[in-house]
Amino acid sequence: MRAKPATVAAMAIAAAVAGAPGVRAEEPDAASFFAAFAQACIPKRLSYDGTISHATSLGWRETGESDHPELEELTATADHEAAIMTRDDPDTQLQRAQFVRDVAGRPHYLIVTRVETPDIITLIGCYLYDFEATAPINPDTITSLLGRPLGRTVEDEGFLQHTWGPNYEARPRTLDTNLSFIAEGSPHVATTGFSGLVLKFETSEPE
Question: What is the per-residue pLDDT for 69?
Answer without folding.
Answer: 95
